[in-house]
Amino acid sequence: MKDISLNNIKVFYEKEYDGGGYRLVDGMFTHPRIKKICEGKQKVLELCSGPGFFGFYLLGGEPRESLYLTDINENLVPIVRETIIQNDLHNVIFETRMWPSEQFDLIVLNPPHHNNLNPHKKGEFKGIMKLINYDEDWNFHRKFFDSLHSHLSDDGYAVVVENHDGSSPDTFNKLIPNELKVEYITNQKFGWKGSSEFFVMILSKK
Fold first, then answer.
1. What distance in Å separates the CA atoms of residue 184 and residue 165, rounded to the nearest whole number?
2. Which of 7, 32, 80, 135 is at a distance of 20 to 30 A from 58, taking alpha carbons?
3. How crowded is the C-beta side of 55, counted as CA atoms within 13 Å?
4. How far apart are CA 32 and CA 133, in angstroms?
5. Distance CA 79, CA 62 (A)
6. What is the pLDDT of residues 27-49, one digit of tens each?
């Protein structure tokens, strides 16, 4: 098992479950608009959490009331548990489902970025890489957008990072319900060393 220090929290992970989130956190969460949104938020949820790179980074940055992590991959349970135990964290909950029953002040996620199994013509996503990268017909995104309003507090925000290689704001504008406001931060590297550029959706209640 590998580990990386994010805001003084030692986060454990296995290579096969690394969706690249730890490479984005410093650049993404220090962006002025995103940093302002995240400050002071007490109840935080990371969906599609994997090992919890986004959530633990935010928890290490300032005191939070609670951090929920959710991911459908049950193999992550002992990995996240190791992070919780080794850092003596008492306000972190990990669940293998999509949505807890509560509302949150801040929801962050690095979801699957492609609805094409072979986006770079180098071979199809398979196994765990398919789970991490592929969202058939944007079904996960559709469920996320349709359920988000009921899981956000009145002054809450969702911060979603996407990859320009797989989508654009136009991809999602038609999927976002009218009850939500959306703004975009586009064409960002966030410290990523590869060729990809990213954009962020910031969603809130109208």
1. 16
2. 135
3. 30
4. 28
5. 23
6. 999 999 999 999 999 999 999 99
Q: Do residues 130 and 136 lie in contact, with contact meaning Cβ atoms separated by under 8 Å?
A: no
Q: Is 7 left (phi over 0), alpha (psi -120 to 50) or beta?
A: left
Q: Are 48 and 110 in contact (CB under 8 A)?
A: yes
d(CA 183, CA 165): 19
CA angle 66, 58, 93 (to 5 degrees): 35
Structure tokens at 29: 């969460």
What is the distance between the alpha carbons of residues 136 and 115, in angstroms, rounded to a whole number? Answer: 5
pLDDT attached to residue 123 = 78
Contact 78, 140 (CB under 8 A): no
Mean of pLDDT values over 45-72: 97
**Contact in structure between 198 and 20 (CB atoms under 8 Å):** no
Q: What is the pLDDT of residues 73-98, one digit of tens each?
A: 999 999 999 999 999 999 999 999 99
**Could you tell me if residue 190 is left (phi over 0), alpha (psi between -120 and 50 degrees) or otherwise beta?**
left
Our measurement of the distance from residue 11's CA atom to the centroid of its chain's CA atoms, rounded to an integer in Å, reads 15
**Letter string b/e over residues 133-167, b meaning 16 or more CB atoms within 10 A of that residue's CB:** bbbeebebbeebbeebbebbbeebbbbbbbbeebb
Which pair of structure tokens corresponds to residue 120? 């770079």
